[in-house]
Amino acid sequence: MGSKQTVRQAARRAAFQMQQRRREEEVKRERRLTNESIKLMVALRERDDTETRARDAIRAMEVEGLDAAAIVRWSNGELDAKEIARLRDFAPRYADPEPVSKPDGSPS
Question: What is the pTM of this model?
């Protein structure tokens, strides 16, 4: 009878240890996913910032009277007309919204 109880205790201990290892692995996975999620969000915001600067440069070149073909030449062929059109109309998706000012000029 004592051996049955010993076997049960050993089985419970083994099951508990297995569950504990699974929980620890899940915590590690959660940390990895959190870190990768942060990297992703930073990269998306950086891309938005970069494309916003490109948009502003294209618009400034257009104000100077350049058309798409001239901008292609000025970009040394790095851009084509399709990419210029996409960037010209670019609207940031991931950037933090601009703070809204109250009529007196103070932030809301």
Answer: 0.66
